[in-house]
Design brief:
By secondary structure, the chain is an alpha+beta fold. It folds into two domains: about 1-100; about 110-190, Alpha-Beta Plaits, CATH 3.30.70.1070. Helices cover about 60% and strands about 15% of the residues. Strands 2-3-1-4 form a four-stranded antiparallel sheet, covered by helices on one side. It is rod-shaped, with a radius of gyration of 47 Å.
């Protein structure tokens, strides 16, 4: 604020100084043409004050220009901040709409599977699956859930071959009976997601 007041004073005094110098230039030019001249007289104190003000302006000018540049940058930052806040508000509304958890479908509960084999080697387990597909192609199809579950039994890793995903134990027992008719041994076990 004080800088602005000083700036205004400096501008006024510079304007006066320019008028004075312009008038004195006109006086010398007009004195040769014999026109009446109006002189402006200032005393030494006023001249010293004008010179001091001009010097202050020259010293302050780069700082004033820097302040004006900073003011411009602050205004742009303010505009950018408002835009970011508006985008954030819009994104928040979209997220609330997209992730309405009450509308998600319930995941079907699967509790049972049929264990048909267990081997210490994963590749052997995969080979057994291939043989079972050949033995009972009508039962072991591409749509049947196949799960190889790693398990540690007495400090030894086994790979359990499990087939199917059944909601009830009676469904699992019925499927096990169908496999036994194809000479495939099985028993009902807990269903586990593929951990391989």
């Amino acid at each position: 604020m004080q800088l602005k007041r000083n700036f205004k004073r400096i501008v006024i005094m510079l304007t006066i100084a320019l008028l004075v110098s312009a008038c004195s230039a006109k006086n010398t030019h007009r004195s040769t043409t014999s026109d009446p001249v109006k002189n402006i007289h200032i005393n030494k104190a006023e001249l010293a004050q004008l010179q001091h003000s001009a010097e202050q302006w020259q010293n302050a000018q780069p700082k004033v220009e820097k302040l004006l540049e900073l003011e411009s940058k602050l205004a742009q930052l303010s505009v950018n901040l408002k835009q970011i806040e508006q985008q954030k508000a819009a994104n928040t509304q979209q997220v609330e709409t997209i992730f309405n958890l009450t509308e998600l479908p319930a995941k079907p509960v699967t509790l049972f599977a049929l264990q048909v084999a267990a081997f210490k080697d994963k590749q052997t387990t995969l080979n057994a699956l291939t043989q079972l597909k050949q033995q009972a192609p009508d039962i072991i199809t591409a749509t049947l859930v196949v799960n190889i579950e790693p398990a540690i039994v007495q400090n030894t890793r086994f790979y359990r071959l499990k087939l199917g995903a059944y909601k009830t134990k009676s469904e699992a027992l019925e499927a096990c009976q169908a496999l036994m008719q194809q000479q495939i041994n099985c028993f009902v076990s807990n269903y586990t997601a593929d951990k391989t």
